[in-house]
Design goal:
This protein has 157 residues and is mainly β. Strand 9 and strand 10 form a beta hairpin. The chain is 8% helix and 36% strand. The protein starts with 11 loop residues before the first strand and ends in a 16-residue tail after the last helix. The protein is elongated, with a radius of gyration of 20 Å.
């Protein structure tokens, strides 16, 4: 659904039901997705550009407000896509709009920076220890004189 301010990203909702009244007006019951910047706490480094949170915010809208369809993948399925199109988004959290709470309240972390995986960032695997490191960590904390051609883990640091 398009925002009244056209330069903003479109609103994304999951259509829960479609109903027509006696006058033929078609309404949809929508469950809204929030973008990280719309949530309490805002966008964090690990949030992907196409990340959405499925909220507990429901609404009834005219079906005429629907602009297009998109696909909101699970996080796991999104990371397996061969190519991400403009219609592709992903969701790994449910969001309680009133409290700002998330489900799950924890996710797996990677790298020495202990941040959740951001599918927009390249991860590098150490051939020695098999741990994964994000490029933010390797670019900002890796000391080039200590770099070993096949290992970036703590055995080098």
């Amino acid at each position: 659904m398009r925002s009244a301010e056209n330069e903003k990203n479109p609103y994304v909702a999951r259509v829960e039901s479609i109903e027509a009244d006696v006058k033929g007006n078609v309404k949809v019951r929508a469950r809204w997705y929030y973008r990280p910047e719309e949530s309490i706490g805002g966008r964090r480094q690990f949030h992907g550009i196409k990340e959405l949170f499925l909220s507990d915010h429901y609404d009834v809208q005219s079906a005429h407000t629907i602009e297009d369809k998109c696909i909101v993948h699970t996080f796991k399925n999104y990371t397996k896509l061969d190519g991400v199109g403009p219609e592709d988004y992903f969701c790994r959290f449910e969001y309680k709009a009133a409290t700002g709470g998330f489900t799950p309240d924890r996710v797996a972390v990677y790298c020495k920076c202990e941040m959740p995986y951001n599918p927009d960032d390249l991860m590098v695997q150490c051939e020695a220890c098999k741990d994964w490191y994000d490029t933010y960590f390797t670019n900002n904390y890796m000391i080039s004189s200590q770099f070993h051609e096949f290992c970036i883990c703590s055995t080098v640091f």
